[in-house]
Amino acid sequence: MFTLASQIVIGAADLCAAFLFMFGLKRMSSPATAASGIRVAGLGMIAAVLASFLYLFTVGAAARPHMIVNVGLAVTALIIGGAGAWIVGRKVAMTAMPQMVAIYNGMGGGAAGAIAAVELFGAKTHGATQLIVTLLGALIGAVSLSGSLIAWAKLDGVLKKPLRVPGQQILNALVMLATLSVGGYIVFVALSGAVPIIAMPSLIYLFFGCALMFGVLMTLPIGGADMPVVISIYNAFTGLAVGLEGFVLQNPALMIAGMVVGAAGLLLTVIMAKAMNRSIANVLFTNFGTVAKGTPGAIKGDEQPAEASDAAIKMRYAASVIIVPGYGLAAARAQQKLYEFVKLLLAAKVAVRFAVHPVAGRMPGQMDVLLAEAGVPYDMIFQLDDINDDFATTDVALIIGANDVVNPAARTDKASPIFGMPILNADKARQVYVIKRGQGKGYSGIVNALFYAPNCNMVYGDAQAVLVKMIEAVRGLGAAAA
Predict the structure, then answer these.
(1) Which positions ≥6 away from 43 have C-beta within 8 Å?
(2) What are the phi and psi torsion angles at 24 (to 5°)?
(3) Rounded to an integer, what distance in angstroms lies between the CA atom of residue 112 and that of residue 75?
(4) 465 burial level (CB within 10 Å; 0-12, 13-18, 19+)
(5) Which is the catalytic residue, given 14, 226, 368, 404?
(6) How much is the pLDDT for 424?
(7) How far apart are the first and last CA of the chain?
(8) Beta bridge partners of 460
C-alpha cells in the first residue's frame, strides 16, 4: 500500500512539473510575461527534484544500502550547481549572456548524455527500442555538449576565427558514419545475447568519443554571424536528448519537458534561419561569407561623419524616430542611457519606437532582453514584419551597433553573401544616423552599403559616450529655452 501510494505521489509530482514547464514556456513567448514564465518553470524544476528525492526514498530493498551515498551525491550536486548558477547568473554581463546560454545548453545535453551512460554501463537488460533510444539520446546529447562548448568559445573570443580545412564535410560525414556504426554494433551484439553491454566498455567510450568529436567538427567551421542560429539548434538538440532519456527512464516530466523544449527550439531555429533567408543545412554545412555568386558590387561614396550633438538636435525636432538596436549597444552597456535619451524625446512629443530584427545580437531575443532590462515599455518594441513598412515615412532612423540586419545589399546585390535576407528598411528613412565605434566591417565581416548612402551619417564612438553627449545636447536645448 505504501509503495502504491508513493508511486502515485511521484507520478503526480512528475505531471505537475511537466505542466509547470509547459505553462512557463508558454509565458516566456511574450516579453511582458517572460519573467513570470521563468519563475513558473523554476517551480516545475523544484517539483521534478522533489519527485527524484521521493523516488530515492522509496526504492527497493536492493538499493537501500546505497541510500546515504546516493542522497549525499544528489544534495552535493544541487548545492554546487545551484550556488554556481546563482552567483554566475547575478554577475553575468548582458554581453556575456550568449556565452552563458551556450554553456547551459551544453550542460543540458551533457546531463542527457550522462543519463544514457549510466543506463549503458548499468547491469540491466535492454530491449531493442530502449537500447536504440538510449544510444540516440546519448548521441544527440554528446553533440550538443561539445558543439555548445565550441559555440561558447567562439562567442567569448577564445576561438577568434572559424577553422576550415579542405574536405571538412567529408571528414564530418566519416565521423558521423563511424559513430552510427559503433552504435549499430553495440545494438547488434547486445540483442544477440553474445555479450552484455557492460562487458563492452571500450565500445561505449568509442561511441561517446566519436559523438563528441562530431559536435566539435560540425561547429568549428561555422562563422560567428551564424552563432544565434547555432545556439538555437543546440537548444533543440538538448531538449530532444532529454526527452529521449526521459522515455528510457519512463519519466513523464523529462519526456514532456524535453520534447516541448526541443520542438520550441526547432521552431525558433526555423524562424531565425528564415529571417536570414537560409536553410538550417546551409547554416551548418556552408561556410558563411566565403562563397559568393559573383563579384560584390562596388560601393560608391564615402562615410559621412556627424557630431553626436547634431544628431541629437535633429531627432529632438523630428516628428518620428525609429531606433534599431544591435550588439554594439550591448557591448557598450548603453541601454540605460539610450532609454534616458528616448524619454527626453518622448517628453518633446517625438514618436519613438524600437525595431528589432530576429537575428540582431548574438543570441535569440538578446535585444528584447536588453531593452527590457533598461525598462523600455513592451508596446514600444516592434518586430521586423510589424514596423518595416513604417521606415519610409519616418524622419530619423537611429542605428546603434547593428550591421547586417540593416544592410541594403541584401535587397540589391546578388553577389552579396546576405542577398535575399530580410532586413530592416532603415535606409528608407529620411535621415539615418549610425552610432559605431569605428569603420570596421562588423561581426560578420561584410561591408554595409548603408553607411555610404547619401541620407546616412556616422556618429563614431562608444555608444554610451555618444548617448551621453546626445542627452546633454537635448537638455541644453531645454536650458537655453528656459
Answers:
(1) 20, 24
(2) -65, -40
(3) 19
(4) middle
(5) 404
(6) 93
(7) 82
(8) 436
C-alpha span between 28 and 290 (Å, rounded) = 36
Between CA 34 and CA 24 the distance in angstroms is: 8
162 conformational bin, left if phi > 0, alpha if psi -120 to 50, beta if neither: beta
Please give the helix or strand (H or E) that residue 324 lies within, else none.
strand 320-325
Sign of CA dihedral 313, 317, 318, 322: positive
When the pLDDT of each residue in the chain is averaged and rounded to a whole number, the result is 83
- Regarding beta strands 320-325 and 431-436, do their DSSP bridges make them parallel or antiparallel, or are they unpaired? unpaired
- Of 223, 237, 217, the C-alpha closest to 112 is 237
**Closest listed residue to residue 367, CA positions, set 377, 355, 379:** 355
Q: Are 134 and 206 in contact (CB under 8 A)?
A: no
Retrieve residue 96's grid coordinates: 556575456
Contact 248, 134 (CB under 8 A): yes
Q: Would you give the distance in Å from CA 98 to the centre of its chain?
A: 6
Cell (9 digits) for 476: 541644453
Q: What is the 3-state secondary structure (H, E, C) of 87-128?
A: HHHHHCCHHHHHHHHHHHHHHHHHHHHHHHHHHHHCCCCCCH
C-alpha cell read off for 89: 547568473
How is residue 370 written as a grid cell? 536588453
For the record, the C-alpha cell of 243 comes out as 526527452
404 is a catalytic site residue: yes
Would you state the cell numbers that stand for residue 31, as one nine-digit string?
Answer: 516579453
Longest dimension (CA), the chain: 92
Q: Are 274 and 230 in contact (CB under 8 A)?
A: no
Angle between helix 252-275 and 227-249 (nearest 10)? 160
Cα distance between residue 337 and residue 468, in whole Å: 7
Give the highest mean pLDDT range of 181-195, 339-353, 411-425.
339-353
Which grid coordinates are listed for 75? Answer: 544534495
DSSP 8-state assignment for residue 407: -
Alpha-carbon distances of 16 from 33, 40, 221, 253, 468, rounded to whole Å: 20, 11, 42, 8, 49
Give residues with Cβ within 8 angstroms of 120, minimum separation 6: 134, 135, 138, 186, 197, 204
The helix (run of H) or strand (run of E) holding residue 435 is strand 431-436
What are the backbone dihedrals phi and psi of residue 318, each rounded to the nearest 5 degrees, phi first? -85, 160
CA dihedral 458, 461, 467, 468 (to 10 degrees): -140
All cell numbers assigned to 104: 547551459
b/e map 215-228, b = 16+ CB within 10 Å: bbbbbbbbbbbbbb
Q: Where are the beta strands (DSSP E) in 350-430?
A: 351-356, 381-383, 396-400
Q: pLDDT (tens digit, 9 = 90+) per residue, 414-443?
A: 777 777 888 899 999 999 999 998 766 665
**What confidence tens digit (pLDDT) does each residue in 390-407 have?**
999 999 999 998 888 899
Cβ proximity of 424 and 407 under 8 Å: no
Note whether 151 and 220 are within 8 A (CB): no
435 contacts 397 by C-beta, under 8 angstroms: no
